[in-house]
């Protein structure tokens, strides 16, 4: 919010300049006139200074509003994107976000990291290691690694690197 005191100060300084100007009209003495001219210049400079300060604050507020509006747009877009996914158990006690049925939009099946998703970031889980008994998925953003035992009795675990 624009500092009301800065605007009030500018108005007050301009009023002071008007008062000085009116006092100058009645003067005939050159010395007194010079003193009033100096006083008038001082009031005008004060008014300019306060106006510039209010303008700087206004510009800062406009920039802040712009950044907040950009953040709202980003959050709305992320919320819409997040609606395409559902939290899925990819192994006993291990979860990730998986595309909902019919929401592929031409993308191949994939999982995104639950940790990154909670922070508002879409980060794909990539196959990091695979073998006959173990499949490891890793998030390249946060480093989360998910080990999934692919044996029929299977278990799974989550490890952090």
Account of the protein in words:
α1 runs antiparallel to α2. The model has no long low-confidence stretch (mean pLDDT 83). This protein has two domains: 78 residues, no CATH class; 77 residues, no CATH class. The two termini are 46 Å apart. The longest helix is centred in the middle third of the chain and has 53 residues. It contains three helices and seven strands. With 161 residues, the protein is α+β, with helices and mostly antiparallel strands.
Which characteristics define this entry?
single chain, 161 residues, alpha+beta, 2 domains, 4-stranded antiparallel beta sheet, 3-stranded antiparallel beta sheet, 3 helices, rod-shaped
DSSP helix fraction = 40-55%
Annotation field: number of helices: 3
What's the N-to-C terminus distance? 46 Å
Strand order of the largest sheet: 4-5-6-7
Mean pLDDT: 83
Segments where pLDDT lies below 50 for 5+ residues? none
User: Sheet with the most strands?
Assistant: 4 strands, antiparallel
What is the general shape? rod-shaped
Q: Helix/strand-derived class? A: alpha+beta
Strand-and-helix sequence, N→C? HHEEEHEEEE
- How large a portion of the residues is in β-strands, by DSSP E? 15-25%
Radius of gyration from the alpha-carbon trace, in angstroms: 33 Å
Number of domains: 2
Q: Write down how many β-strands occur, each being a DSSP E stretch of 2 or more residues.
A: 7
């Amino acid at each position: 919010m624009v500092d009301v005191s800065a605007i009030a100060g500018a108005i007050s300084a301009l009023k002071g300049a008007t008062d000085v100007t009116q006092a100058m009209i009645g003067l005939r003495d050159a010395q007194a006139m010079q003193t009033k001219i100096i006083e008038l210049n001082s009031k005008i400079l004060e008014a300019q200074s306060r106006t510039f300060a209010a303008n700087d604050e206004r510009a800062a507020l406009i920039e802040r509003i712009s950044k907040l509006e950009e953040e709202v747009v980003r959050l709305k877009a992320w919320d819409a994107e997040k609606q395409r996914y559902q939290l899925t158990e990819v192994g006993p006690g291990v979860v990730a976000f998986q595309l909902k049925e019919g929401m592929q939009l031409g993308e191949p099946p994939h999982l995104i990291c639950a940790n990154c998703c909670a922070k508002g970031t879409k980060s794909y889980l990539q196959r990091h290691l695979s073998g006959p008994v173990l499949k490891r998925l890793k998030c390249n953003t946060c480093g989360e690694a998910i080990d999934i035992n692919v044996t029929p009795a299977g278990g799974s675990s989550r490890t952090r690197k």
